[in-house]
Amino acid sequence: MQNRSNDFIPAAQVAIHDADLQRAVSFGTNAGYTRRRAAMFAAGEAHGQALRRQAAAIRRNCLNRLPELLAEAEANMTANGIRVLWAIDAEEANRQVVEIARRHDARAVVKSKSMVTEEIGLNHALEAAGCVVLETDLGEYIVQLGGETPSHIVVPIVHKTRESIRDLLIDRLSMPPTDDAEEMARFVRETLRRDFLAADMGVSGGNFIIAETGSLCLVSNEGNARLVTSLPRVHVALVGIEKVVATVEDYATLTQVLPRSATGQAMTVYTHLINGPRRANEPDGPEHVYVILVDNGRSGIYATTYAEALACIRCGACLNGCPVYQVTGGHAYGWVYPGPIGAVVTPLLTGLENASPLPYASTLCGMCKEVCPVDIDLPRMLLDLRADLVAMGRSEAVWTVGMKAWAGGVGSPATYQLGGRMAALAGKVVIGSLPGPLKGWTVYRTPPRFAKKPFRRLWAERQSRREERDEQP
Amino acid sequence: MGSNGRDSVIDDRPSPRGKRVSLFVTCMVDMLYPETGMAVVDVLEHLGVAVDFPPGQTCCGQPGFNAGYRREAKQVATQFLKAFQDAEVIVAPSGSCAAMVRHEYPRLFADDPLWGDTARRLAAITWELTEFIVEGLGITDLRGRLPAPQTIAFHDACHGLRLLGLGQAGRALVDKLENAAVVEWEPGEICCGFGGLFSVKMADVSGAMLHKKIDAIEQAGADVIVTGDVSCLTHINGGLEKQGKPARVIHIADLLAEGVRHAKPVE
């Protein structure tokens, strides 16, 4: 997918002035935030925090053992009859999927929700090879119908209002007019059923891979993932290499925090543990199952101090909690992963120079870390990415000059005090707006007013009064 | 309360009781809100704490640090270390600046042979005002009273709330003031959109967040909104004034100082 992250600031401004987007994102993120909190702490704050700590430790432990777990996962999946492929980048992953489609003469492809396929632009590659690709997750289906991209990791159409979805379905599919969300979903469901039955190949993502059993794990709510992975002759799953966990017990813990953090559910409606193609004694299931382990920049992150970002289980809680995401929505971030996790992984996966504004798209309020089910220190990584940008010379010159002047001035008490006196004098000139790069402040706020006497003067005066008093006989 | 960010370094630090307090007033209070600085002194002296003011202090370095300018931040932070190197206990009326010293100094000076030890020592003796009183001194009742009944809501400044695990300390102190009633206000935990450089670099996003905060303040139904950081206060009040709205946020030290000025006589 093309990266437009460097346009974050103008794109955010457009989003802020889009009343429908504001209404939809505000509703969606509030609901997500509130439900997560209720679900995570249903058994009390201590229990929820303990669960988080456990999940965080599991993810870190699995990441530390990633090379060995990947080898174990490959061996056990292969033993289960799953064909395992490795893709170093988007191009290789796309080529592998296209080759599989050709090999099995598959033209009609149905997909369940997968962020990694968004990341590599799989739909375009398959379409270019002559396949017809259909998204079957309701949100992704609407995204595809409208020619958009998902704006949220879990809720792809969080930016859309019910009215805009209704209009799209009427316009494109001649849906009988209705304002009822359930009726709209039923309409899409009936349309999709025919496509499922006609599909040659199903493409899914994967939430986890269990190394010790060679199982592919998927969680879903709509039932579409079950059809995608069991009806067509061929099933291809694309999974980021970081998604491997060691044991069934690891999976059992993570599958408790994932739905609670993502949608506020104790469990998703469907949980899939796929252990290979249809066996001789089984009535259904695909004849061929492929798992493509996608790197696409992940091993590069693994080798850095940002490796913790790979612990992410893609729940979207940091998006819902983020006060910046709440006003910008996801598209402003310009690539696949929005919100705080997107602000960290987009520069890491696509290059810091291609996403320079994103590390600054945060007030460092800490909410993302607080709600993260695996306790990723996103604020710390945003700070480190900012330092990387400065070290690369990618920070704007005006800030570099300003920061040097600031450090020179504030770095010694004498110049600090002089600067304060000058600011206080300048403050006597009544100004409504600040100059240069500080202008943005006064669009929304009045300028701060410097006091006539700084605290240190008040303190000194008070001390001398005390000394005089103490000297009285 | 969303306070899972309690820092482990600080949990078992030595008690500050009976020690001299060196006030780190912070650059913003020094220059913009000197009366708030005096309020801090009044509250601490009311509790019998000996306060000094190291005159070499300027800024903690956070503006540069948060903008990614580590070298410049370190230059400013070094001045802090020089100014406070003899301190027994450091108290600041800011969760954000206290968090900078406690969380970032040990990292910033990790490999510094000259200042590394001082950075680690000062990180361990630095307190935010309300946590110093409640957790450090073990005091929640200042024996203060407000001149008239007031309802009070908290805007929990983010760094205090999530980096230091504050939140309850300030509420406990205010709740014990006679005539004060703390009201629950959920949007108090949501960022006001300041974020230092963010407020000018991403002015429109920051402005949109500020707008939401101001709407929430108008719906809070409290007589007073208090906060622990003057950076949020400057941001929110600047927005309120720009919009011609009468409400203002005040620093918790000012409210506590008003309380102790009308203190109940000691029995």
How would you sum up this structure, described in words?
The complex is a heterodimer of chains A (473) and B (267). With 473 residues, chain A is an alpha/beta fold. Helices cover 53% and strands 10% of the residues of chain A. Chain A folds into 3 domains: 1-16 and 314-395, no CATH class; 41-296, NagB/RpiA/CoA transferase-like (Rossmann fold, 3-Layer(aba) Sandwich); 397-471, no CATH class. Chain A has helices at 8-16, 19-40, 45-64, 66-79, 90-103, 115-120, 122-128, 138-145, 162-173, 181-198, 224-230, 248-262, 298-302, 317-321, 323-328, 339-350, 367-371, 378-391, 397-410, 413-426, 439-444, 455-471, and strands at residues 83-87, 108-111, 132-135, 201-204, 208-210, 215-220, 234-240, 244-245, 270-274, 288-294. In chain A, the strands form 2 sheets. A 6-stranded parallel sheet of chain A has the order 1-10-7-4-2-3, sandwiched between helices. In chain A, strands 8-5-6-9 form a 4-stranded mixed sheet, sandwiched between helices. In chain A, a hairpin with a 4-residue loop joins strand 5 and strand 6 (215-220). In chain A, helix 2 crosses helix 12 (248-262) and helix 3 (45-64) crosses helix 12 (248-262). Chain A is elongated, with a radius of gyration of 27 Å. The model of chain A has no long low-confidence stretch (mean pLDDT 95). Chain B has 267 residues and is α/β, with parallel strands linked by helices. Chain B has 14 helices and 8 strands. The longest helix of chain B is centred in the last third of the chain and has 18 residues, at 203-220. The model of chain B is unreliable at 1-9 (pLDDT under 50).
Write the layout of secondary structure elements.
The complex is a heterodimer of chains A (473) and B (267).
Chain A: H1 8-16, H2 19-40, H3 45-64, H4 66-79, E1 83-87, H5 90-103, E2 108-111, H6 115-120, H7 122-128, E3 132-135, H8 138-145, H9 162-173, H10 181-198, E4 201-204, E5 208-210, E6 215-220, H11 224-230, E7 234-240, E8 244-245, H12 248-262, E9 270-274, E10 288-294, H13 298-302, H14 317-321, H15 323-328, H16 339-350, H17 367-371, H18 378-391, H19 397-410, H20 413-426, H21 439-444, H22 455-471
Parallel strand pairs in A: 1-10, 2-3, 2-4, 4-7, 5-8, 7-10
Antiparallel strand pairs in A: 5-6, 6-9
Chain B: H1 8-11, E1 21-23, H2 27-32, H3 34-46, E2 51-52, H4 62-67, H5 70-84, E3 89-92, H6 95-108, H7 116-124, E4 126-128, H8 129-136, E5 145-155, H9 158-163, H10 168-175, E6 178-182, H11 198-201, H12 203-220, E7 224-227, H13 230-242, E8 249-251, H14 252-261
Parallel strand pairs in B: 1-2, 1-3, 3-4, 5-6, 5-7, 7-8
Helix pairs in contact in B: 3-14, 6-7, 8-10, 12-13
